Amino acid sequence: MSGLVEVTREGRVALLRLNRPKQLNALNAALAAELVATVRALDADTSVGCMVVTGSDRAFAAGADIAEMADMSAEAMSEADYFGEWMDFANARTPKIAAVQGYALGGGCELMMMCDFAIAGQGAKFGQPEIKLGVVAGIGGTQRMTKLIGRARAMDMHLTGRMMEAAEALSAGLVARVVPDDEVLAEAMKAAAEIAGYARPVVRLAREAVMRAEEASLAEGLLYERRLFHQLFGTAAQREGMAAFLEKRPPRFNEA
Ligand code: CO8
């Protein structure tokens, strides 16, 4: 690991900080590989209940590294399956919260959307400016943004390449919460600690069920959710959670 992603732990929460601040955390192949490998390892670690992904004050990430990509050919892109490994980031079963300050552009906005939800600062700016570079989004921007904010708004973003301010991103549904810039990380860590305090297998199923809504028909999704609900009865988490409520005490999960 070359330090392009700094990892720190606070209890059951892992904080991942992108560490190319001078390049506004532009995502080059080395950073991408390190971030994906880090997430794979943390996802397999049963002592991790939630991850927070963040950048610097100026930028969450200003996109894929333009200098690195500029001279590449289609053949080289395809041969390297450039950014193909991001699927493992998106599919990690441990929840990931994006804590966003400053720019989240291009691949940076896509990275944010690969997290399960985002908490942004009031000064954050979002965009898919690839059109200005003569390309289109490449790690899910046209797909995930359209699911999140609808076709009209996604078209506006991808066809004009304009930036969206935090207040608009909140009302559009691109981010879950907007807080003052200097409170972003604390707010994200607090939410992550809350999630990590719940039963890990149940958190994973809840995440999976919500993600299923993007793929399945309503009838299939409802059935899937109901079956999960049924199957949780008799598990340690359900026994503890419901007993704690009835005994008027806080539940104790993840203590084994
Ligand atoms: N790539 C490389 N370097 C970058 C990037 C980037 N995306 N963004 C910023 N930098 C560098 C700048 O070159 C500059 O470096 P230097 O100091 O050596 O000149 C440094 O970061 C600081 O940037 P600026 O001086 O430009 O700072 P400003 O405050 O003036 O501007 C902006 C900030 C508006 C964010 C501006 O830097 C900018 O427009 N950046 C590019 C944003 C962009 O176009 N992003 C999309 C990139 S394409 C993409 O993400 C496609 C993803 C899909 C790929 C999938 C492949 C399969």
UniProtKB/TrEMBL annotation:
It comes from the Bacteria. Keywords: Lyase. Pfam families: ECH_1 (PF00378). InterPro entries: ClpP/crotonase-like_dom_sf (IPR029045), Enoyl-CoA_hyd/isom_CS (IPR018376), Enoyl-CoA_hydra/iso (IPR001753), Enoyl-CoA_hydra_C (IPR014748). This is Enoyl-CoA hydratase. The keyword Lipid biosynthesis does not apply. Coiled coil: none annotated. Belongs to the enoyl-CoA hydratase/isomerase family. The keyword Lyase applies.
